[in-house]
């Protein structure tokens, strides 16, 4: 538990002072009674052990003060909040290796179908952009709330030789809006990034700037890159009349995700890929946040006050504050 205004907890010094004042009052009451009562009557006028209810009422009021001060410091606990707005850039590898048929009907068809479902299911407040991760990455669709525009672009993807994951990340970063409101403001705010990149690939960078430079840029921008390694290790494609092995390079994609603060996934089938996108969707929608629990303390203080009042009325026939 943390407090938004910890300085206010200094008011808790009042609690022990009130306890001392109460104890002193009990001593003065007995001395005053002793001055006006005969010794045999003293135990009745000012009993050495006061009724339990009197101490209970005093303790309840001390507890009310303690809880009220803690509530005034605005305590909060770790929790979750649902994002209402965010930007997601989907980057898909369009190199020739995505034509491999180890995933039915082939990698690129399965990948685009799953991506369309992912885009379609994102919350309405999310904007989605589409970037290719081929030899010459480009922004096919700038971040938009028009899901149909993104889905249509996914259906028109064309394969070409070469993979430039580093350049694709740079291209995606350039497409991220720079005028987004800070997500760390307001009640229930979260410092979770409001922009993220989801990169799906089956290989590794063969051209363009290295992944390390792109990862450094993503870290500096505070934009996590979640990666999906899609395909199997035994796939082949025919390129320029020759059969070429195209295994998945999971290590390269894992490194990108780990360093940028994203998530890494590996999928070898269409169903696995759909599950991955579902998990990413859930991760993007729900973010960690500090949950204000001051109302808990206000409720507890009110309950203690009611208890103290009831005890006072039952035992003395007068309100605790009378």
List keywords for this structure.
10 helices; alpha/beta; 11 strands; 46% helix; 322 residues; three-stranded antiparallel beta sheet; six-stranded mixed beta sheet
Structure write-up:
The chain is an alpha/beta fold. Helices cover 46% and strands 19% of the residues. The protein contains 10 helices and 11 strands. It has helices at 14-36, 39-45, 52-72, 107-121, 147-155, 165-175, 211-221, 250-260, 270-285, 294-316; strands spanning 2-3, 75-82, 86-92, 126-132, 139-144, 195-201, 225-230, 236-239, 242-245, 264-267, 286-292. The strands form 3 sheets. Strands 5-4-3-6-7-10 form a 6-stranded mixed sheet, with helices on both faces. Strands 1-2-11 form a 3-stranded antiparallel sheet. Strands 8-9 form a two-stranded antiparallel sheet. β4 (126-132) and β5 (139-144) form a beta hairpin. It starts with a strand and ends in a 6-residue tail after the last helix. The model is unreliable at 180-191 (pLDDT under 50).
């Amino acid at each position: 538990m943390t407090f938004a205004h910890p300085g206010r907890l200094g008011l808790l010094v009042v609690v022990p002072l009130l306890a001392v004042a109460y104890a002193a009052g009990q001593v003065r009451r007995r001395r005053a009674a002793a001055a006006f009562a005969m010794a045999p009557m003293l135990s009745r006028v000012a009993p050495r052990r006061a009724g339990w209810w009197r101490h209970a009422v005093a303790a309840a009021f001390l507890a009310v003060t303690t809880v009220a001060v803690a509530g005034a410091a605005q305590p909060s606990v770790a929790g979750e909040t649902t994002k209402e707005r965010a930007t997601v850039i989907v980057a898909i590898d369009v190199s020739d290796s995505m034509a491999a048929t180890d995933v039915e009907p082939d990698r690129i068809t399965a990948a685009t179908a799953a991506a369309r479902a992912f885009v379609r299911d994102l919350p309405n407040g999310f904007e989605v952009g589409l970037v290719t991760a081929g030899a010459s990455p480009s922004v096919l669709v700038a971040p938009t709330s028009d899901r149909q525009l993104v889905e249509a672009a996914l259906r028109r993807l064309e394969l070409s030789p070469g993979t430039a994951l580093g350049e694709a990340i740079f291209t995606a970063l350039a497409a991220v809006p720079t005028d987004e409101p800070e997500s760390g403001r307001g009640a229930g705010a979260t410092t979770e990034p409001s922009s993220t990149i989801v990169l799906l690939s089956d290989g590794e960078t063969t051209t363009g700037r290295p992944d390390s430079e792109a990862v450094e840029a993503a870290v500096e921008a505070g934009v996590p890159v979640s990666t999906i390694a899609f395909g199997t290790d035994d796939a082949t494609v025919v390129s320029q009349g020759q059969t070429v092995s195209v295994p998945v390079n999971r290590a390269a994609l894992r490194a990108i995700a780990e360093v940028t603060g994203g998530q890494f996934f590996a999928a070898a089938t269409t169903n696995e890929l759909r599950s991955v996108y579902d998990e990413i969707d859930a991760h993007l929608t729900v973010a960690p946040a500090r949950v204000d629990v001051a109302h808990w303390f206000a409720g507890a203080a009110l309950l203690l006050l009611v208890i103290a009042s009831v005890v006072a009325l039952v035992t003395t026939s007068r309100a605790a504050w009378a």
